[in-house]
Amino acid sequence: MKLRKKLLWGLVALGAAGLLAWTLMPAPVSVSAVEVKSGAFVESVDEEGRTRLRDSFTVSAPISGYLQRVALEVGDEVAQGQVVFRMEPHPAPALDARSMEQARENLSAARSRLEAARADLETQQAEATFADAEFERYRHLRERELISATEMDRVRSVRDRQRAAVRAAENGVDVARFEVESARAFLDIASGQRPDADQPVLEVRTPSAGLVLTRHRCCEGAIAAGDPVIEVGHLDDLEVQVDLLSMDAVRVRRDMRVYITGWGGDETLAARVRRVEPAGFTKVSALGVDEQRVPVIIDFDDVEGVAEWLGVGFRVEAEFLLWEGDEVIQIPTSALFRSEGRWAVFVVQDGRAALRRVETGRRSGMVTQILEGLKPGEVVVTHPGDRVRDGVRVSPELRGG
User: Fold this and answer.
1) CATH topology assigned to domain 57-91+203-233
2) Distance in angstroms (rounded) separating the CA atoms of residues 227 and 60
């Protein structure tokens, strides 16, 4: 009896110790996990871009003058050599009250000089008539040799001088008349208004056919030489400029495939890289960080079809296909971490996390290529926290890669 009782109490103590050990044992760490996959892998760079025209033409005012109202509107088609706007001379500036009164007095003085010139002309004409009659009388006397040749020459000289005086008086009348017209014209336009008379008009034509992209000026008014009026271009020259980080731009090559999305439609537009510009620039990011950017120019494969939807200055998203591969082992980038200077992951084996070092390859967004260390079908922990250690029991929750 005593032996049986001791055995019973021993079993109870052993069970209690086991129960206590099970109670004190840490619970499995709940982790999210994914299955290692092998499939198609695309390494790409995504960046925002803007559409633009390869060639556009800004039609500016060739000289200073007065711009007439521009009838063309944005989106209107124009032919090569078509008149796009017209210019005329500047209207005269308006005068103040004092200058206006001086202009009136100048006109009155010019009219008085005209009347004086006409009176002088009449006097000279009368003197010339008398000189002609005097010359005729002396000529008859000379024919009968009643006067000397010297006297005849004197009378002829008087006649010729008088005729010259008449011509001078006529020119004086013309000069006075021009002064009156000039003073009247100055007074007529002194209010600053454009004259009703026909003015010389300069017609400015477009050097290229296309659409009116921008109308810098629409209303009439004074314009300086070189000021832009309209911009003309053709949507068949539509292209995309994407400013890539310099570290990404060095991996982009001519004729590389590009997919255009995010432009507002459901379709993905195909394009190719035409040029990576050799000079970069500094751009401040939204976080205030200086970034070195390089412009990359992209051509659409079907620019005519694209022109039906897109215009100049439209926002798009460009995906540059840097590398493509089939049957590539890949995992989420969030599963990777650094361990002793190398990349590593936690692999779920028999309910425990096993530390395994891997060799990574290319990256594309949230996915990384694995060159060595993993096989398709294995399960790795994503977003491993501080509680995950090598050999720790885990409770994985499988998610789609």
Assistant:
1) OB fold (Dihydrolipoamide Acetyltransferase, E2P) (2.40.50)
2) 5
Cα 171 from Cα 159, distance rounded (Å):
19
β-strand 202-205 against 77-78: which pairing, if any?
A: unpaired
Helix (H) or strand (E) holding 168: helix 149-188
> CB–CB of 173/121 below 8 Å?
yes
Amino acid identity, position 360: T
Task: For Cα atoms 231, 236, 242, give the angle at the middle one, nearest 5 degrees.
Answer: 80
- Residue 220, CA distances (Å) to 67, 94, 203, 217, 229 in order: 5, 18, 14, 8, 11
Q: Return the CATH number of the domain spanning residue range 45-53+236-325.
A: 2.40.30.170
pTM over 0.70: no
CB 252 within 8 A of CB 276: yes
Tokens of 119: 């009176």
Q: Would you state the structure tokens that stand for residue 400, as one six-digit string? A: 């789609």
CATH class entry, domain 25-41+327-398 = mainly beta
Please provide residue 115's backbone torsions phi and psi, each rounded to the nearest 5 degrees. -65, -40
Residue-by-residue pLDDT tens, the chain, 401 positions: 566 666 666 666 676 666 555 554 567 878 889 999 999 988 888 999 999 999 889 999 999 988 999 999 998 999 999 999 999 887 766 666 777 778 788 888 888 888 988 888 898 888 888 888 888 888 888 788 788 888 888 888 888 888 888 898 889 888 888 888 888 877 766 555 555 556 788 899 999 888 999 999 989 888 999 999 999 998 888 999 999 999 999 999 999 999 999 998 889 999 999 999 999 999 988 888 899 999 999 999 998 888 888 989 999 999 999 888 888 999 999 999 998 889 999 999 988 889 999 999 988 878 999 999 999 999 999 988 888 888 888 888 887 65
What ranges do the domains of the chain cover? 25-41+327-398, 45-53+236-325, 57-91+203-233, 97-188
Q: Which of 53, 69, 315, 51 is nearest to 210 (CA)?
A: 53
